[in-house]
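Need residues for this backbone.
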């Protein structure tokens, strides 16, 4: 029975991979500072704690930084990237022709880069004094949100560097 089961799994893998369907990779870091690179296909990446560097490369990736000061890059494809509780650097990416990314800041003072000319980006900055770069002559959507510091009760001060094509919501400093 064990041999028959092993052959069935092997035949299924050959059938799926031979048909041109790529399997998604799940890449999980540790609670330390990790550097992880995705594949050319769809990846699910989780940095966990620590100051992580996650690069999705190609494919339509989902990348989560979690706690720590993370550097998160989507690469080619339509990516969904979320920071975490640290001061993160978040960047979308695009193929040579097009891309569509969703970039989510976290509770830290994040730097979010959405200025790849071939990509349409939606940015949701999150709490913290965030800086967004989206001056790529594309019609991006930038939402800085209305968040308040839990310590002082004062509003977060977000800065967005945008172009005339972008839709900007609730950013305190908008620079064209």
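Answer:
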């Amino acid at each position: 029975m064990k041999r028959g089961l092993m052959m069935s799994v092997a035949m299924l893998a050959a059938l799926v991979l031979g048909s041109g369907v790529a399997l998604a990779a799940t890449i999980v870091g540790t609670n330390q500072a990790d550097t992880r690179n995705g594949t050319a296909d769809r990846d699910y990446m989780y940095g966990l704690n620590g100051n992580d560097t996650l690069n999705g490369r190609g494919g339509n990736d989902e990348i989560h930084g979690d706690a720590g000061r993370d550097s998160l890059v989507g690469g080619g494809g339509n990516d969904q990237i979320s920071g975490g509780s640290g001061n993160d650097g978040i960047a979308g990416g695009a193929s040579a022709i097009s891309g569509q990314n969703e970039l989510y800041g976290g509770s830290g003072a994040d730097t979010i880069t959405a200025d790849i000319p071939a990509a349409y980006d939606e940015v949701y900055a999150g709490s913290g004094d965030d800086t967004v770069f989206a001056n790529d002559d594309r019609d991006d959507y930038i939402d800085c949100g209305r968040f308040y510091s839990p310590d002082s009760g004062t509003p977060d001060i977000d800065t967005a560097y945008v172009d005339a094509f972008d839709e900007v919501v609730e950013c305190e400093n908008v620079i064209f």
